């Protein structure tokens, strides 16, 4: 395939930037977009046509591949339509808010034999790839425990984003599925899921209805464990993935940005992103110390530009998707990311966790997956 023509469904903060990145890739261009709000302005910027509805993107003869970046609850229809039209599809995270929807999307894309890539962009961070390589080489032995935190504080907002409404975003766990996905990439699918938590500090006007504090325990085959914390009720912000192996440990720090390896023989610090400049940019963005923030409040405005470090990983993942659309074979590292299976496994575990919280018990993930 020579030129690849992209259609985008949902061109808000993130979809518009995905479009800018695609327009900069060689021999790629955005030709059609659909967004119920403000599409004409984004279409003018991207040099493409604003369609009247989703089908105007997915079914258009001017579109070879589809990007889905609408709100989390609205991904299933465009993915299924793209599949029916026989087009490869890239879908932002979380791909859906239930295992049932994921399964339907997987069935549609696998029946059509089209690529179904999830926008789990963390997998494209330089330091995350380095950590995975070290683990595959056996440098830290067997991974027996992971601990992640994605914790910040949310101030009262003038208007409440869809990202803060559980029905539309899924709340912190689904909206920030990245850490759960990474842990399962490292440890395989969780067998049991336990979650406690609730909305402890964000009730009333100016707040959504999501739980602001979630504490998760996962059990894996062979006596291995993970604990994950999520929320916006934390005045002391933390964002990290700590990987404990039998021969060493790796800490991916997304706040005091960098990746650290420690074994009895080695102690090394690596970049998280591609360059020192991107790492420094991320440090500034997070604002260490008392400037705690909840990243889920960025929304709704295509003229807001993502920070340098985020544009870097968006470029890496879209370049990868673009190569696959042109016929490249997926790397083994990313294969579960490009057939929808990793994203579906993450949502299955998230659904088990949701059930655990609701019913106050430990839940086998198999209860969800059947
Ligand atoms: N990978 C990441 O790091 C990352 C970062 C930000 C957002 N995202 C994901 O990107 C998606 C979009 O988030 P955002 O930050 O751009 O939000 P946003 O609110 O800025 O944009 C969403 C856009 O979708 C439009 N929209 C609403 N309903 C729609 C529908 N049914 N069909 C098509 N468009 C519709 C809205 O008008 C809006 O312009 C979400 O799934 C989000 O989780 C991913």
What does this structure look like?
By secondary structure, the protein is α/β, with parallel strands linked by helices. It has two domains: 132 residues, Rossmann fold; 195 residues, Dihydrodipicolinate Reductase, domain 2 (2-Layer Sandwich), CATH 3.30.360. The chain is built from 14 helices and 15 strands. The strands form two sheets. The chain has a nine-stranded mixed sheet with strand order 14-13-12-11-7-10-9-8-15. A six-stranded parallel sheet has the order 3-2-1-4-5-6, sandwiched between helices. A hairpin with a 4-residue loop joins strand 13 and strand 14. Helix 1 packs across helix 11. The longest helix is centred in the C-terminal third of the chain and has 19 residues. It is globular. The mean pLDDT is 95. The structure holds nicotinamide-adenine-dinucleotide (NAD). The site of nicotinamide-adenine-dinucleotide (NAD) has 23 residues, from helix 1.
Secondary structure elements and their pairing?
Elements: E1 4-9, H1 13-24, E2 28-34, H2 39-46, E3 49-50, H3 55-58, E4 65-68, H4 76-84, E5 89-92, H5 99-112, E6 116-119, H6 126-136, E7 143-153, H7 166-169, H8 171-175, H9 178-187, E8 192-198, E9 213-220, E10 224-231, E11 233-245, E12 249-253, E13 258-262, E14 267-270, H10 276-286, H11 308-325, H12 335-338, H13 341-359, E15 363-364, H14 366-369
Parallel strand pairs: 1-2, 1-4, 2-3, 4-5, 5-6, 7-10
Antiparallel strand pairs: 7-11, 8-9, 8-15, 9-10, 11-12, 12-13, 13-14
Helix pairs in contact: 1-11, 4-5, 5-13, 9-13, 10-11
The structure holds nicotinamide-adenine-dinucleotide.
